Amino acid sequence: MGKLLAVALVGIAAALAAERLLAFRNRLNASREVAPVSLPNCRLIKGIEAGSEDIDILPSGLAFISSGLKYPGLKSFAPDKPGEIFLMDLTEDNPRAAELRISRGFDLASFNPHGISTYIDRDDTVYLFVVNHPHQSSTVELFKFVEDDNSLVHLKTIRHDLLTSVNDIVAMGPDSFYATNDHYFSDFLLMFLEMFLGLTWSNVIYYSPKEVKEVASGFYSANGINISPDRKYIYIADVLDHNVHVMEKHANWSLTHVKTLQLDTLVDNLSIDPHTGDIWTGCHPDGMKLFYYDPENLPASEVPFGLLAMSVPENCFVQIVLVLRIQNILSEEPVVTRVYSDNGSVLQGSSVASIYEGKLLIGTVFHRALYCDL
Ligand SMILES: *[C@@H]1O[C@H](CO)[C@@H](O)[C@H](O)[C@H]1NC(C)=O
Ligand SMILES: *[C@@H]1O[C@H](CO)[C@@H](O)[C@H](O)[C@H]1NC(C)=O
Ligand SMILES: *[C@@H]1O[C@H](CO)[C@@H](O)[C@H](O)[C@H]1NC(C)=O
Ligand SMILES: CC(=O)N[C@H]1CO[C@H](CO)[C@@H](O)[C@@H]1O
Prior knowledge:
The protein has a single domain (2-373), classed as Neuraminidase (6 Propeller), CATH 2.120.10. It is 13% helix and 41% strand. It has four helices and 25 strands. It has helices spanning 2-28, 188-197, 287-291, 303-307, and strands at 43-44, 54-57, 62-67, 84-89, 97-99, 101-102, 113-120, 126-132, 139-146, 151-158, 166-173, 176-181, 202-207, 212-219, 222-227, 233-238, 243-249, 255-262, 266-272, 279-284, 321-327, 335-342, 350-356, 359-364, 370-373. Strands 6-10-9-8-7 form a five-stranded mixed beta sheet, with no helix packed on it. The protein has a four-stranded antiparallel beta sheet with strand order 1-25-24-23, with no helix packed on it. Bound molecules: 2-acetamido-2-deoxy-beta-D-glucopyranose (NAG) (4 copies). One 2-acetamido-2-deoxy-beta-D-glucopyranose is lined by residues 250, 252, 254.
């Protein structure tokens, strides 16, 4: 009887694991082919080699780019180098990326920047919010941008029990923001289990010095977050659920769900065209490829991903790039266009796409950045 029970339990566990594996592979949308779409005059940005994870462009055409993210399970081309923030002037004919100097008193050695967001105050001061993962933790760093000096002055480090696994932020004021937690757990193994089991424990937090609260929940993995030009709606990308949620923002900062736009790809960071309100996003058409960059060289901490290596075709280690434009998301029939796509030969693993005056800037999780005419 004991043996029967044991066999039955093992059988159930195996069936459950197989079912979860299939579901997980589906969420990662493994093994998809994407037809190439090209744009004129694309060139790689000099100086960016180790990621351009998030991009934020000021109305003046100055673009901030965060680079050098190190994240469990994801490839890094500069594992020993701290992260950096680059600045590019998109009004120049041939813009170059230059690293911004960061003021003393900030621990640069552990700087591991992720999502960024800018806020321009009434007195024209530009604040830069940077999600940071020093020593695998999550903080939000607040900087003041000093243009004359090409530098960032560190103002404060924000930590909070509700900011557990922060991915992206969108600034609401000089010291307030919405932030996505891409997972409930911050420990890597638990985070993996959470994804594998398909738990929807990821959420969105509102932070201000006076009040911190959860304003949305129930995501597989809330990633990119941004705001409509009229500042009425918040857009949230759920990278594992392949969709973008539109939430209405209220005076008390709470959010209510308006609609969900389902896409057939993993959507990541969202950026908004300030003139048209179009949403631009870099996508991972195949999440499996993002994780399996270098199968021969998986660190021990990434062994769980080995579990999923089963039946992943060899060519899956190439990183596809896909940029989508979403027009009229609030209408009955939003228009989704594939604006740029590459099989990984030019650029690998797009995470964000931002536009400025007819130009497209495409960022990647751990690779280079590309600048094209539209
Ligand atoms: C916030 O405002 C919305 C809309 O006015 C309201 O429905 C909601 O109950 C408020 N929430 C709280 C916590 O006060
Ligand atoms: C990828 O995701 C889309 C939408 O969720 C789904 O329709 C499609 O079948 C998935 N493809 C694979 C290969 O799992
Ligand atoms: C990717 O596309 C380029 C040109 O479009 C082609 O030369 C190359 O062979 C392709 N690579 C793969 C792995 O398909
Ligand atoms: C703000 C931000 O950078 N969000 C996401 C961009 O893309 C990468 C790749 O998945 C995510 O890890 C980031 O969280």
